[in-house]
Design brief:
This protein is an alpha/beta fold and 374 residues long. The protein is 23% helix and 29% strand.
């Protein structure tokens, strides 16, 4: 593919969704030589009702047609299986709850895809993420900033990126509100202007999660116990539950005598602990039960975007994506592990999920939650 004379080439990850489509449009308006790439990351059950990859490619190709740009279909399924899915299964088998979208960004979109784009002569890559990149003139470092639409900010999912990756990345819709993106898409006449946002993990889609895991992880039933140690049911296997889970426990109708304050005897049950050694699932009643509250956490496998450890001190953090920033104190322990202490208890801090640190609108990086404590 030859570069258009004098124009910087940008390769855009076209997913078939409206955000990446508008990103490609904006870059073209800014005078870049734009090429679209559709990433196929999963092919185990292309024909299932839940896998939207074929429909998404048709949408991406229709967008490329309207914008007058080339599009290439690239298969990263082998890399995805090795680098993302294998790790996802390992974490679930260990009783943790991983976030494969974070791993997919670090290993596929900003590694395999970036490498491929550079081979096509790209100066930069772009995606439809709601985030921003800024070069700090004082430090000379690239910073990852939150997207300007607070309800859509995706910096949480991008916290494992490094300086080399950020220096090559553009997030064109990071400056916009989602409503503006939809309006622009309709104005330009993009065929996917009204397409609903995809939810769920790329390889699972909208399918029932437990049914999907069943194919890969063996069921090992065991007891469900309440805080007094009474067996009140049976679980299907600890891998199939996550902390804070309320649905699908199979114990909804049970009453507990002397239920927790704030609970009442009909209060819902929540998963509070998993004992892998004894294959026991511990549940409690009431959303605000003390077992579900943590003021301290330890994280490992840390990644700091600046390439250097942030100084211990006061910051804000998210321990799950759909959460307001919570004030916290950072205690860096080693290069790869750190601790956070929160003045207000955090709900259902879950091993395997990410704790992501912020200094105002700047995402500093984060790590994988290993443990939490009251």
């Amino acid at each position: 593919m030859s570069t258009q004379a004098g124009k910087q080439r940008v390769v855009v990850g076209l997913s078939g969704g409206v955000d990446s489509a508008v990103s490609a449009y904006l870059l073209k308006q800014q005078g870049f030589d734009v090429i679209g790439i559709f990433m196929k990351n999963w092919e185990d059950d292309d024909n299932s009702e839940y896998c939207s990859s074929n429909v998404d490619f048709i949408d991406a190709a229709a967008v490329a047609d309207v914008l007058g740009i080339e599009i290439e279909h690239v298969n990263f399924a082998a890399e995805y299986k090795d680098r993302v899915f294998a790790e996802f299964l390992r974490e679930y088998q260990a009783g943790r709850t991983p976030n494969p979208d974070i791993l997919c960004n670090a290993e596929i979109k900003f590694k395999a895809f970036l490498d491929h784009a550079l081979r096509l002569g790209a100066e930069k890559i772009a995606t439809g993420h709601y985030a921003r990149v800024r070069l700090n003139p004082t430090t000379g470092k690239h910073e990852l900033l939150k997207g300007l639409d607070p309800s859509k900010d995706q910096s949480y999912f991008l916290h494992r990126l490094n300086q080399a990756q950020l220096s090559k990345t553009l997030f064109p819709v990071g400056e916009l509100l989602k409503t503006e993106v939809r309006r622009l898409a309709a104005e330009i006449g993009l065929p996917n202007a009204k397409k609903k946002d995809s939810t769920g993990i790329c390889f699972i889609g909208e399918r029932p999660f437990r049914e999907f895991l069943n194919r890969y992880i063996q069921r090992e039933p065991g007891p469900i116990k309440d805080e007094k140690g009474r067996t009140i049911g049976q679980h299907v296997g600890l891998s199939f539950y996550t902390l804070g889970q309320r649905q699908g426990l199979g114990i909804g109708g049970l009453k507990a005598k002397g239920a927790q304050k704030g609970g009442g005897e009909h209060a819902p049950w929540f998963v509070a602990r998993k004992d892998m050694g004894k294959n026991t699932l511990w549940v409690v009643q009431g959303h605000d039960h003390p077992w579900l509250q943590s003021r301290n956490l330890t994280a490992q496998d840390a990644n700091w975007i600046a390439g250097t450890l942030p100084a211990p001190g006061l910051y804000a953090a998210k321990t799950r994506y759909r959460q307001a920033d919570a004030p916290c104190a950072l205690t860096v322990q080693t290069e790869k592990t750190f601790g956070l202490t929160f003045p207000d208890p955090q709900w259902a801090v879950t091993p395997g999920q990410s704790a992501v640190l912020y200094d105002g609108e700047v995402c500093l990086g984060g790590g994988v939650i290993a443990s939490s404590a009251p």
